[in-house]
């Protein structure tokens, strides 16, 4: 193990317990402390050789990927209204999806997105993001008023940057001609797209409208009572309000005349 890994530095075999992993290292300790060079000794490890190379790429390996397209097909269903809708345009032209590209103004019904356009809509440039990878969030929002024709229920797309670095490793294992187990380890950089769908729908109904109207009327009635209570008993000028709201009538004694 490299002496740059602190947990691998040793002076004797006792510093390298058998089976313990090297913290932030590349393998499992064998129990031996060996000379790494003339000045350092490190723990011998069981591991794949050579160790991973951390050299970063200087330019995107597949710059042409900015012109790749992504086809996003999405179907929503509002069970309460028994309404379903797909984001793809209903057309009899078999070449439509091969030739169209999404544009928020000129072609909003096309679900085919160019990778470069999606990255730029998230506020980044493809060259910068493709170098070390990144993650783009794609949000599809359905906001439908079902009192209008179904054709007016259309999705709205938005894009946001979630992470400026994204990579993962994958390995393939095989036996060589000498029956030794080998592997090819690849560290892959790329752009990840996370798609989320949100939506709401509404439709006029006389029963909920009547209930809401009645609730509103009752609320206004209750509000009047509450205001009166506050003004009559809690306000500093309650006496004045009493005199303005109520008229006091005083009656004299009742006389009976005898004939």
Automatic annotation (TrEMBL):
It is found in: Cell membrane. The keyword Cell membrane applies. It holds the Pfam family P2X_receptor. It is a multi-pass membrane protein. Its main location: membrane. GO terms for biological process: calcium ion transmembrane transport; response to ATP. One of its GO terms (molecular function) is extracellularly ATP-gated monoatomic cation channel activity. It catalyses: Ca(2+)(in) = Ca(2+)(out). GO terms for cellular component: plasma membrane; postsynapse. Keywords: Cell membrane, Disulfide bond, Glycoprotein, Ion channel, Ion transport, Ligand-gated ion channel, Membrane, Transmembrane, Transmembrane helix, Transport. InterPro entries: P2X6_purnocptor (IPR003049), P2X_extracellular_dom_sf (IPR027309), P2X_purnocptor (IPR001429), P2X_receptor (IPR059116), P2X_RECEPTOR_CS (IPR053792). The chain crosses the membrane at residues 213-234. PANTHER family: P2X PURINOCEPTOR (PTHR10125), P2X PURINOCEPTOR 6 (PTHR10125:SF21). Belongs to the P2X receptor family. This is P2X purinoceptor 6. It comes from Aptenodytes patagonicus.
